[in-house]
Amino acid sequence: MPVIAPMLLAAALAAVPAPAPVRAQPLAGVTFDGTIQTVAYRGDRIYLGGDFTHAIDRGGRLVARTRLAAVDARTGQLLPWNPSADARVRTLAANAAGVFVGGDFGQINGVGRDSLARLDPDTGALSPLFKHSIYGHPHTIALTGTTLYLGGTLTLVDNQPRGRLAAFDLATGALLTAWKPQAQNAVNAIAVSGDRLILGGAFENIGNIPGTRHLAAVDAQTGAVRPAFHASVAYTVDNVTLAGGALYAAVGGKGGRAIAIDPATGETRWTLTADGDVRAVVRIGDRIYVGGHFDAICGSDKVGDKGVCKEGSTPRIKLAAVDGAGRLLPWLADANGIQGVEAMAANPALGVFAAGGSFTTINGAVQRRFAQFQP
Asked: Which residue pairs, CB below 8 angstroms and at least 24 apart, start in 273-277?
């Protein structure tokens, strides 16, 4: 195998263009008649879950889609994938093995499934695997090549005690009986980082171990806390994502925050403060996009009891963009509504990201509950 000189390798890497910034005007395409709670990419498809019962095509025609749908990421058009859930879908994840959904449902495609199911990514057919009894609500799903990790408020799976977390064999769907870390309260987010899982949520600790409040790392095989990761997050974490060598946490509380964190140590790199909860953070190239319930980005981290910025603010309604150092960018894609954006996902290969929630406009133009932003 030939050896590439360091200078030549650096030049080759430098020649690879960075993804272009996304435009603030979303791609024209399908929208929805109810809240989008979760968004996930698989190649050039976007899978969506939530409370909706219809998609709305560009002509305004209603097309039945019962809490689950798929959209072509390149065209924005609704795909024929059409499974159904009988109650809210809160979380989903997709890979080559299928589309995995979690939520409040008791049936998928009219067949009993308690809160967790696997669907065919092309046909929407329900798999006979992942048939479990779950007490509590799933909030997040994370996948590796061998394992599905589930987080939420769950306390029993198949009558076996669980501390808001559970793991399942991806090939067989079986509950992994030995993996059972104990979170004191809800786990809202899981990010896979090598042989660790980074957990975010409302918990005060994991396994009563100090230094694990709201954000912690556990071993992917044993569930043991990894003490080398030690973060300091004062409020509930709603979402975590790993991208570009950083961990990004979406945080609620008094106001809201997007926090960039060293994924190895947990050390905070920068914090962006808003006047309402931050619900999701994604990264495309050297830009970070933030979504949530906020109407402004604060001039400092000082906020009042109701999240009011105390030292000035810049209007950004439900969506904002910052650079790699956390500095606010002029990108403007204001959404409406009280809750605004609930979920986001990115596809770096396509250079796009999607946002879902309860908004019905972007920059004053009709955009019901789903938007994809592209270069």
From this structure: 273/297, 273/298, 273/300, 273/301, 273/303, 273/309, 274/298, 274/307, 274/316, 274/320, 275/303, 275/307, 275/308, 275/309, 275/313, 276/307, 277/238, 277/250, 277/251, 277/252, 277/253
